[in-house]
Automatic annotation (TrEMBL):
The lineage of its organism: Eukaryota, Fungi, Dikarya, Ascomycota, Pezizomycotina. Residues 416-429 have a biased composition (Acidic residues). It comes from the Eukaryota. This is Protein kinase domain-containing protein. GO terms for molecular function: ATP binding; protein kinase activity. Residues 443-476 have a biased composition (Low complexity). It comes from Dothidotthia symphoricarpi CBS 119687. Residues 176-476 form the Protein kinase domain. Residues 406-476 are annotated as: Disordered.
Amino acid sequence: MADATGLGPLKTARGYYERAWRQELKRIHPHWTAATIRKNLKWLWDSRTQAEEDACQLLVDNGASAHPVIDVNIAPHSSVEDNMPPDARAAFWSTWAAQAGVAPVVLPAVLPAPAPVPAPVLPVQPLNSSVTFLPAIPHMTELPKFPTERDEHADWVAHDPSDLISFPDSTPADRWQGARMLGRGAKGVVGLFVKLDEHDNIVDRVAIKDTAKDPPEVWFDLIRWRDRLPMDIAILERLETQGAHLNILAYRGYRLSTIQQRYRLYNAVCDYGCLMDALEFYSAPWRRRRNTHRKMEFDTIFGTDEAKRLAAAAYEFASPFDSVAAAQKALATEDLWGDGEVDDWKKGPFALPTEVIPEAFLWEVFRCLVEACSYLESGAGVDLGPGKDWRPILHADLHLQNVFVMPPEPDTGERVDEDMASPGEEGDGEDGRKTYVDGPEPSSRTSTERNSTSKAQATTTKTTHGTTSPTTAPRT
């Protein structure tokens, strides 16, 4: 019958001796099989001293449940070979005891109370992989089918919502629904999922990125792994443990499939998309003005008036038969002769861009990028404790499409009461338009028109207390 320690008495001295050693071998060699442990236990028993055997026999006589004292100095660092001779100490101590006339060790009849059970420790993860930097197999749950370019977007966003429960802050009772695709790149596809309450109101959103399957030479590349995770995930996990940074895209978890050799990331949703999308509102007018001035004649030299100069430039730029103009186009031919730049010319070939990128927005983007990169390089104020230094993180793919823009905090606007507004918050701005706090200006345009200009609102500015400040918060 076992006592409070969970160990029962044994009938042989060898049983006590091997039980003590079995626990030690499992601790120092957690990956050894049962057969390997048995072979090493036999060698250890053959290497016992007479004193150790007498101590174990005394445990048998008393029906004790305690472990005998073992000499951990002879613990094998690797498995012993078959028919390996016992450790030399066994013969030495037996011969020394016989020559010196030393009697066997006699232990007291009543054994002392067993030592208190030590606090539990985390077990060492078994090395069940031939590549030690990989996670255990299987790891988590399998991911759904990766969408290829031939798949319809609806096929992916409509896949089983139960696939979403494997990330933090989500439970099986949550109702998740695929909304739409957000984008596709060379290494993955991103979709928007929304969480609904009992009244079908959206209460949460998450952007899910599924990576494409890596070839074996990439997946098993040691340099791409950290903390037994793909390096992208490991870096996000480390940043999350240090606390979220305002200018780092919020991370909500991951799923990893070692069988499919790919993973899934859960991130916050950025309403204004990437920086490339946010600047698209200004792109066409700037390209139009640039191309206009490239082929514009100087009236002081040729004596032409302004209207003729602009008309000539517009005609030469829009003509598909002019090889010189074609070589100076800002867009590819198939894009230019579609419904893009040519339509802009038809709407007003003599008009210069009425919108320019606000300087305050450019400075705000620059500030946010500097703060984000500074945080990655030095931690920017993160206290890791004594003796611990921040390990710099290098962003190896920083470009406009990897910088995301979110609305300001708070992201819902409230109209300023003109009667209660302060001098810097009066209803009319410099251009005569009404001023609103922390939100886009209401419009009577149709939903289609509002959608077409939503990216313009991403880079508009607001006027508060007489100063102009950007209404975006870029994230890397």
